[in-house]
Specification:
homodimer; Heme Oxygenase, Chain A
Chain lengths: 270, 270
């Protein structure tokens, strides 16, 4: 009996299978998140997370454009397009990536430094860029299925908002605006994406491919936190990646000792 | 002396070179356009043009999304993004491709037939899809340079509006809305694209590549009209392409002769 001869799972069974992938593999189970939400991260661990996660945020609009570029159905393009708008915002203001840079500023990082991507770990780039390529190259069904980690995101965003507000001075409505916005943006994306996947995965072979795509995406997210833990919790920072002290806002640079107090002239000029 | 040793053209020289490419190679010089604007096209030649040009229109948003998917600078993405919106429109209404389908209806074609792409000539697909791939694969500068055929478009759109209004019954404000909208949309795109190309083509090597990209794009447009002429003016329609009589609106189907008049019962039921 060949694979294609096996009957497809029912819609409910397949939906259950997708949810189980999240329950078993989504990065809310990663120890870095427990550490972050539990208030055990040092300021530099938080900064390393913000810097590396920037790379993911900044590639999401490119990933969605790669998807659009392959969609022949204008109506599907029209429905998908707002994801790019949600993340990039307008020419002047708004958008998830600007909100992420507000978080960067709140944790003491120079937004331009973060936006440059200079300090991102190579392992982060490899994982994120693999996702963009996946969406560019794989069947549309698999590309949509990979986006379904958003099914599990509202829970982690809510935990994050609660944990960060409780444990970190930088956390307030402004710095956490990214997560609050995603709480309302993600569910509408999920509703469309999930319906698309359940509708289009009409053979066991396509269901297996869609499930594998979702597993792949959980790997993309998990690998980023593994790299973060290795580099910044265990302190094995790879060559070229951000080192504590780099890219800080002036206000976040530790106060100099008395011997480093600027001369009166310099102070007057500032 | 190697190529890289040659000095770059001045901004004015290079701009002149780009304009000359249009003067020599843009498809307003193609005999099909003279025939169309001069009122010599038969209704079926106009329909063949509308059907094939649909493929080009429908791929433009995919081309622009392919461009966006490669742009790392969020501000460039934000500025470019409206091209997709201009062509696709909103979920309910608007957009160049809907306006193209209004033209299709005006010339007696069933919009759903045109939108299906069923009758498009293979040569049209090859040319248009080569453009989408070019933008997906080539340096961003070349991709922007290829879009600069829009420098020459307002003139052809204005000629087209004038010529079609003068010579064809189907032409009115509603059916020609696509061209009127492009008269205002294209110049802002050109202004940005031209500045981008003049700014970024800062070596002779890059200027040559950008000029070659613009030549390539004129080839993409010209090849479509050559195929159209061969198929529908000379009457050598390739296998699979639209044949006169297919995809017509009921109202555009020629009146049957008296012997084909429906029986009274059938007329009552309609």
């Amino acid at each position: 009996m060949k694979l294609a001869d096996h009957p497809a799972q029912t819609r409910a069974e397949f939906h259950e299978r997708l949810k189980r992938i999240g329950a078993e593999r989504y990065h809310d189970r990663h120890p870095f998140h427990k550490r972050l939400h539990g208030g055990q991260c040092t300021p530099d661990e938080v900064r390393a997370w913000v810097i590396n996660r920037w790379h993911y945020q900044s590639r999401i609009p490119m990933k969605d454009a790669a998807f659009l570029s392959r969609v022949e159905d204008p109506q599907l393009r029209r429905i998908w397009r707002h994801r790019i708008e949600d993340h990039d915002g307008g020419a002047e203001a708004g958008g998830g990536i600007r909100r992420w840079l507000a978080l960067a500023r709140a944790v003491g990082l120079e937004p331009d430094y973060v936006a440059s991507g200079a300090g991102v770990m190579p392992a982060t780039r490899f994982a994120v860029d693999a996702y963009v390529r996946f969406v560019r190259d794989m069947p549309l069904l698999d590309a949509v299925a990979a986006s379904l980690t958003e099914m599990f995101a509202p829970k982690i965003h809510a935990e994050r908002i609660e944990g960060l507000l409780k444990h970190y001075d930088f956390a307030d409505d402004a710095s956490l605006a990214y997560f609050r916005n995603r709480l309302s943006e993600a569910p509408k994306d999920v509703e469309f994406g999930l319906t698309y996947v359940l509708d289009h995965a009409d053979t066991l072979e396509k269901q297996d491919a869609a499930a594998a795509a979702l597993v792949f995406k959980t790997d993309v997210l998990w690998a980023q936190l593994d790299a973060l833990w290795h580099g910044y919790v265990e302190g094995r920072i790879p060559p070229g990646a951000w080192r504590p002290g780099e890219g800080l806002l002036d206000s976040a640079i530790p106060e100099p000792g008395p011997e480093a107090t600027p001369a009166p002239d310099a102070a007057a000029a500032s």
